Amino acid sequence: MTNLTRRSLLAGAAVAGAASTLAPLAPASAAAPPVGKQAPGFYRHKVGSFEVTAINDGARTFPLPDTFVKNKTKAEVNAGLESIYMAKDSMTIPFTPQLINTGSKLVLIDTGNGPQQQPNAPVGMVNANMTAAGVDPKTVDAVIISHFHGDHILGLRNADGTLMYPNAEVMVPEGEWAFWMDDARMNAAPDAMKGAFQAVRRMFGPIADKVTKYGSGKELVPGITSVEAAGHTPGHTAFTIASGNGRMLVQSDITNIPLFVKNPDWHIVFDMDAQKAEATRRRLFDMAVAEKMLVAGYHFPFPGAGYIEKDGNGYRLVPLNWSPTI
Fold first, then answer.
1. CATH number of 40-319
2. What is the 3-state secondary structure (H, E, C) of the chain?
3. Pick from 48, 96, 147, 179: CA 20 to 30 A from residue 321's CA?
4. Residue 24 pLDDT > 80
5. Comparing 17 with 109, which gets the higher pLDDT?
């Protein structure tokens, strides 16, 4: 038997240490290359018996304009961004349409920014993510539009101009149609707005005689009701989803990112009537608080849903807990 002593162990360690300084090191295994892509973006949950699928259309990041909030300084906006752990001098806005399966109808609320025009574009992902979620666009029964801003309507058509949802009834707010399809108003609009008017005509002009126009307080399909929410645009509309004991407010653009949940009196540049938009914001958020409704926000961080609580003069968003089951 080998007799190990403290002296022999120390001597062996010294020899091994000397050898390690002389022998070349074995090359380390190469690190795996970064993937550089996210997983497909969809998330399912239930509202009563309805299956709701949030569809990620991506997000845009751009330098923070000096007048992004009309009644606050850029410094105040930067402080607000930092308070919610977002980078200063920059704005990132996500986009999340909602797909609701009522059991008898498959309904898409808003369509996103339109077809992805180039690889790795930051937006235009609705079609790919809907496909990843196992949904064929041909099976969508109704497309409900909340308002006519491009990030909500341009996904109505494919890149070649054909309808993305060829079998769907297209439903639009009557107040939006009256405003954006008015030729006199388009001709009198500032140059910066003319492109928006023209986009509305590209999307809806060829199907103008088939579009269904709806008012507020109307049940559009069983369980989905329009809610007047003007201010962001003249005919801007939110929706309640109701099934059994489950209720969800699809807030559309009542606010943009949660910075404006926290600060409901901040007037974002996108709101066409800032005072009315603020009044709408408070009215519908107070309703969501009182009724403990789940709220889906088109521009909330994906999957874009949570609960609204009162917080001083404003509100706060409590994000929906992710669940591995539906």
1. 3.60.15.10
2. CCCCCHHHHHHHHHHHHHHHHHCCCCCCCCCCCCCCCCCCCEEEEEECCEEEEEECCEEEEEECCCCCECCCCHHHHHHHHHHCCCCCCEEEEECCCEEEECCCCEEEECCCCCCCCCCCCCECCHHHHHHHCCCCHHHCCEEECCCCCHHHHHHHECCCCCECCCCCEEEEEHHHHHHHCCHHHHHHCCHHHHHHHHHHHHHHHHHCCCCEEECCCCEEECCEEEEECCCCCCCCEEEEEEECCEEEEEEECCCCCCHHHHCCCCCECCCCCHHHHHHHHHHHHHHHHHHCCEEEECCCCCCCEEEEEEECCEEEEEECCCCCCC
3. 147
4. no
5. 109
